[in-house]
Specification:
31% of the residues lie in helices and 27% in strands. By secondary structure, the protein is an alpha+beta fold. The longest helix is centred in the first third of the chain and has 26 residues, at 74-99.
Length: 572
């Protein structure tokens, strides 16, 4: 935990986004800061008042240059304007830290210059924390980049971290906070050097935490902030790619929460995915085939999806595999629909598990003006006798954009004969283990349907295995099928298994750790079969995912398997 006695050495901390974080830390923790920057600190001229806009300030700069008998060239005006604004920002940050209850001192030094850093901190007290926020951009396509571009980007990031840890060794630190970027995690067009630099910081953070367990190491992979290096033009490009910018107050709160948490992890990705810009649709319809080997060991979540003594692949995981493969074929395109999902022969992790499973994608239509592509997907394997075995199929539609989410008609979140979700996992209604227990509460249930409140804690990347949550989150979406099991158990005292759905329309991704409501409306029901529509929505009824024609097989013979005790290997 950060305390008032902590003193942080901060690169890039006197201006911009890092400065906002420093002020937030001062307000929350009352700690101290040594703010590093390359701008020599000098009081601005008296005529450069704080209230002047940029145009007025540049006019006064030009007048001052002329009064000195020099020509007011545009380059000279720009340099003077940049220096004045930098000094004003530094002074404002120092005042803001003090007003927030912290203490701050500005040190003029190049973060990558170890000798200069040593000289700058020669007379300061013991440093207990480092925040590395310095960075630079040189955005170009990789074929246009020069060695100098790479050096200018990697220098502040990598050389800066090396120099900071040379003058403030991690063995003596309590806190090490590194501002990395989502570009390192996802990649980003024109930022090959920036992505490399930030991914090096991520890997260095993991190694530093391993080597120095007494120091809390945190690598924040920030998405684009609303400010800093994100100009209005860049912000508009992000909007076209459905990449949300991080509001300054929200980003600062993420940092403060992470610092207060009990070691939530080393690397944290903050913000929406860095989607590639979708390329124009062109050319003939294509077919692509790929394959993968599946195992319980590679997918730890499967231990929580056991029917009887065998793990079974969730139908939503199969859908996720197909959707993800389509999006890899068309980077930047978003999931709009997944129709006609059929569970033909589910994948069971038993003695009949195939050596490899094949996924075939066939483009069926491309609408270039609308930016929509449709694909058929089929997952299959080959039996020991050499015969094909078909497991799952679906038709998937991707687009440059998705439709605005509709509002659920007849929204009803009232509690009537409600019950906690934990009881349903305990009594055999639901067979799912801890990592898939997203149902928190049944708000009401009757012959026409039910409404649930759900929230699934985030799964680690390791636990997600070969089916990572992306545009489509198979782990949160599995709760939609769980709603069928709950309704069937209450109505027929029987278990059920999903057979697929007629259509699925996605408007918003389903997120971990986010309250979500599921409303199931029965269309047809017998003691052998259920057909229903299920909507995942928020408390205001805004629909994120709408499934229509969800079909499930109903069987009392499955009851004993759902109640199977994994710990003892025998039925309950």
């Amino acid at each position: 935990m950060v305390g008032a006695d902590d003193l942080f050495l901060v690169s890039g901390g006197a201006r911009g986004i890092t400065a906002a974080c420093v002020v937030g830390m001062a307000r929350r923790f009352g700690c101290g800061f040594l703010l590093l920057g390359r701008t020599p600190l000098a009081p601005p001229p008296e005529w450069a008042g704080l209230g002047l806009d940029d145009a007025a300030l540049k006019q006064r700069i030009a007048a001052d240059i002329t009064a000195r008998g020099e020509r007011p060239l545009p380059a000279a005006i720009q340099r003077a304007w940049r220096d004045i604004r930098a000094n004003q920002e530094i002074a404002a940050t120092l005042r803001a830290v003090q007003d927030a209850g912290g203490r701050a001192r500005y040190l003029c030094a190049d973060v990558a210059d170890e000798a200069g850093l040593r000289a700058a901190i020669a007379d300061v007290g013991p440093i207990t924390g480092v925040i590395h926020g310095a960075g630079a951009l040189a955005d170009k396509r990789i074929e246009q980049k020069t060695g100098a571009d790479f050096d200018s980007v990697l220098g502040p990031k990598i050389g800066g971290l090396r120099a900071l840890l040379a003058v403030a060794p991690p063995g003596g630190l309590r806190h090490l906070v590194i501002f990395s970027s989502a570009a390192g995690f996802y990649g980003n067009l024109g930022q090959s050097d920036y992505a490399i630099a930030n991914e090096i910081l991520n890997k260095a953070s993991l190694q530093l935490q391993r080597d120095h367990p007494a120091c809390r190491v945190l690598s924040l992979n920030w998405g684009p902030w609303d400010g800093g290096m994100v100009t209005p033009a860049i912000k508009a490009l992000f909007a076209q790619r459905q990449i949300d910018v991080i509001p300054v107050d929200g980003g600062v709160e993420v940092l403060l929460t992470a610092l207060e948490a009990d070691r939530p992890g080393v690397q944290l990705v903050v913000g929406s995915p860095m989607r590639a810009a979708p390329a124009p649709l062109a050319g003939e319809l294509i077919t692509q085939r790929s394959s993968r080997q599946l195992s319980v060991e590679a997918n730890p979540f499967l231990a929580d999806h056991m029917i009887g003594i065998h793990a079974v692949l969730p139908a939503t995981a199969a859908a996720s595999w197909m959707i993800d493969a389509c999006q890899r074929l068309h980077p930047g395109y978003r999931l709009r629909r997944c129709d006609g999902l059929q569970v033909l022969k589910g994948v069971v992790f038993d003695e009949q598990l195939a050596g490899r499973y094949r996924l075939e994608l066939k483009e069926t239509a491309k609408d270039a003006p609308a930016g929509i592509v449709r694909l058929d997907a089929l997952i299959s394997s080959v039996t020991a006798e050499g015969r094909p075995r078909y497991h799952y199929r679906a038709s998937i539609e991707l687009g440059r954009a998705v439709d605005a989410p509709p509002t659920l008609a007849g929204l009803d979140l009232a509690e009537r004969d409600a019950c906690d979700g934990a009881a349903l996992y305990a009594d055999g209604t639901l067979f799912h283990g801890p990592s898939l227990r997203g149902v928190q509460r049944v708000l009401h249930i009757d012959g026409s349907g039910l409404t649930l409140r759900c929230a699934l804690p985030a799964l680690s990347a390791e636990a997600q295995g070969q089916f990572p949550a992306g545009d489509f989150n198979p782990f949160v979406a599995d709760a939609l099928f769980q709603s069928c099991l709950i309704w069937v158990r209450r109505t027929y005292d029987a278990a059920s298994l999903p057979l697929g759905w007629a259509s699925a329309e996605q408007y918003l991704p389903l997120a971990f750790d986010t309250p979500t409501y599921l409303t199931l409306a029965v269309r047809e029901a017998t003691e052998q079969r259920l057909v229903a529509d299920i909507a995942a929505h928020d408390a205001a009824g805004r629909v994120a995912l709408q499934l229509r024609g969800v079909e499930a097989a109903v069987s009392r013979q499955l009851n004993r398997l759902f109640a199977h005790d994994r710990a003892t290997g025998s039925p309950r």
